[in-house]
Write a structure and sequence with these properties.
106 residues; alpha+beta; 5-stranded antiparallel beta sheet; two-stranded antiparallel ribbon; 3 helices; 7 strands
């Protein structure tokens, strides 16, 4: 019984450590961030872009499972066009009209 309680406390501590004082997550999967920020319309498309090597984070090719933090630089290649943004905020959900507040185009 004591082992189960200890495991529960460890899991709860890990979960709460992922949030800052305002209740925002401190990091998020790259594919989810691209979808929430509306940089890429759908999450499966973001996964495919990561698998194809068209997305870099801080100058390195990134997998979809990479955790993105505030301050990271994301570079997305759409054919000949390259979009470079800096992560300003990480939110689980965001309104479509206000999604541009999550990043700054460089």
């Amino acid at each position: 019984m004591e082992i189960a309680a200890r495991q529960r406390d460890i899991i709860a501590k890990r979960w709460f450590c992922n949030f800052n004082i305002r209740g925002e997550s401190e990091h998020m999967r790259l594919d989810k961030y691209l979808k929430v920020s509306r940089l890429i319309k759908r999450r499966p498309v973001a996964n495919e872009a990561c698998d194809a090597g068209r997305i870099q984070v801080n100058g390195k090719v990134a997998k979809a499972s990479l955790n993105v933090k505030v301050g990271d630089i994301i570079e997305i290649t759409f054919g000949d066009k390259v979009v470079k943004v800096e992560v300003l905020s990480i939110e689980e959900t965001y309104k479509k009209d206000e999604a541009r507040e999550l990043y700054k185009v460089l």
